[in-house]
Amino acid sequence: MRRWHDVTVSLTGPAAARLYDQHVDAVYSYAARRVGSDAAVGVVEEVFEHALGRQAQRPEKTSSDLGWLFAITTAFLRRHSATERERLLKWTGARATGSGSIPRATDPLLSSGAEDAAVATAAKVMAAVAELEPEDRDLLFLVAWEGCSSALASAATGIPQGNIRSRLSAVRQELRRRVTDIERAAESIDDRAEDPS
Amino acid sequence: MNPVQVVEAARPDVGPMPAAERRHVRELLFDVAMRAQTEHKPMEVRSPNTRRSNALRLGALGVLGALAVGGLAFSASRDTGTSLNQPTPDTGPERTTTVTTEPERAIVIDPPRPTTAPTATKLAIPGSAESPLLLPPERTRLDELTVTPMQLGGSTLLLRASDLTTLGLREADGLKPPPPEPPTTEETGETIPTLPPREFNGFTVLAPDETGAYTANISCGSLTFAEGPGFVPFRPELNRLLQSVSITNGSIDIALPDGWQLISEGPSVNEFTFGLPVAVGGIDIVVTLTQYPKGSIAQAAYGDRQLTPATFRGQPAWIHRSPDDLGAFDLVGMLGTTAFRVSARDITLVELEFVLSQLLSGDVDEWIRRFGALPTETDPDIRTCSAQPSFSVS
Question: What ipTM was assigned to the predicted interfaces of this complex?
Answer without folding.
Answer: 0.80
